[in-house]
Every structure is written in C-alpha cells, then in structure tokens.
Amino acid sequence: MARAIAVGVDGSPESLAAVDWAAHEAALRRLPLRIVHAPWWEPRDVPVTGGGDALSRAAEAVVAKAEARAAEGRPELEISSEVVAEDPVDALLGAARTAEMLVLGSKGQGPVLGFLLGSYGRQVIAEARHPVVSVRSPGDRPPPRAGEVVVGQQGSAEDSGPALAFAFAAAAARGATLRAVRAWSLPPLHAYSPEFLRLTDEAGGLEPLERKSLREALAPWREKFPDVRVVEHVEIGSAGQVLLAASTGAQLLVVGRRARYTPIGGRIGSVAHAALHHAPCPVAVTSHH
C-alpha cells in the first residue's frame, strides 16, 4: 500500500498554501493525500464560543475547506482527512511516521510561523524521521512554474543518501533538472593528515577532491534515475550561503539535517536553519539516518 503525503492544516492561508503544494505533489507522484488537523488551538478565523460542539464544528470546517481546496481540478486524487485530539507536535509527528512526507505551511522569514508557533516547528522538523516540506505562503512570492530541484550534498555518500533520494525522486516526478550542490572550505591545519594529503594529491587538489566526492555520492542515484539531468555544482564558501544562492529560481530545495537535542528542544543544524528562514522556494528537510 502506497504511503500518503500528509499535510497539516489549521485554517490559515499558510496551511492552505501547504495543501495546494501537497495536493499537487500527491498528484505528480500518484500518491494519496492525508489532511491532518489537530485543533489544540483555535482556528484563527473561527471564534470558539460554544464549548466542545463549537470546536468540533470549527475543526470540521477547517478540514472541509482543505479537502475542497485539494480536490479542485484533481478528481483522481485520493483524499482522506483526520481531526486528531492531540498536542499538535505529537499529532504531526504521528502523521509523519507513516507518510511519504509531511507538508507544513510557512510565513515570511520564519520556518513555520502561522502554522506552528516558536519551538513547535523546530521540534517537528528535528524529530520527524521522514522528510518535512515547508511551503511559503502565497503572499511571499509566487513559486516558479518551472525550475531546478536543488539539493545540498554534504559529508559522505551515506550521510547525504536520504536527501539525494528525495531530490532525485522529486526531479523525476517533475521532469526537472537536478542541481547537486557541494560547498567546501579550506580544512584546518590539524586535518592535513598523511592520508588526507595522499587523497588530495591523487585527486589533483582540494577542489577536484570535492568534485570526486560529489560524483561518487551521486553515482548510485544517477543509475537509479537515468532520465534525470544532473548539474554538479561545487563551490567554495559557507554551505548555507552557497545553497541559498543556487536556489534562486528553483522550485524546490532539499537539505539534510542532523538534529541535536538541548534543554530547550531540538536544533536542526545551521544549513537547514538557513534554508528554512531564507530560501525563496519550498524546502524539504530530510533526516540523516
């Protein structure tokens, strides 16, 4: 049974933008769409004045509006919905656990403002084991109808496997070019071990060594997705800045994250953080297994 694409809704314009993106993605991939609403807070445009019955009606209205939005122009799309009486983080993590991906709405320069407040969004992205896609509200800037799928490749081939898998599948579904970006910087002096120097010498220098690492990481995915056109992009500089520059005009940016946990909650890493705050397009965040 195919896993659905899950989308969280709360009745806001930002979450409806997420519904639009998720429904389009589900249709592209021929997957079911699952709409999830956790009415732990009140939908902003529906005052709750009559107790539990009013809250139930408000929740049903939120879901019905999202269903109608998703079904518009997509009669073949299989849509299900659920109102979950849980904390929003728990409800969304539960939905993500069995989904192909989880889609959330985003507003302005914050990662999930207008859908989840403060640390909630970071917690969902930091803890979800499947990809989480953050979609900007339509009031920010219109997404391009065509453009590359951009993916950041960091570390080893194993480290970047989940991000590359998601990006290649997304590019294949769209018939889009995939731009694989590897940013690098000069290593500190203590990193110049004999083995490192040998590998660098064999590759012909530091940048050729980085290009070799990117090429090797892409090889199995190119074999699996032979029809996807790939552009290899290796550039010296901060990974966040290089990726953001490369994502100008893109229709999707895919990044990996390595979550760290602190007393105030999960941290998703500087690259994912920069992408979620500043990328001009939807951002998919995948976990390193």
UniProtKB/TrEMBL annotation:
<dbReference type="Pfam" id="PF00582">
    <property type="entry name" value="Usp"/>
</dbReference>
<dbReference type="InterPro" id="IPR014729">
    <property type="entry name" value="Rossmann-like_a/b/a_fold"/>
</dbReference>
<protein>
    <recommendedName>
        <fullName>UspA domain-containing protein</fullName>
    </recommendedName>
</protein>
<dbReference type="InterPro" id="IPR006016">
    <property type="entry name" value="UspA"/>
</dbReference>
<dbReference type="InterPro" id="IPR006015">
    <property type="entry name" value="Universal_stress_UspA"/>
</dbReference>
<feature type="domain" description="UspA">
    <location>
        <begin position="1"/>
        <end position="136"/>
    </location>
</feature>
<feature type="domain" description="UspA">
    <location>
        <begin position="149"/>
        <end position="286"/>
    </location>
</feature>
<comment type="similarity">
    <text>Belongs to the universal stress protein A family.</text>
</comment>
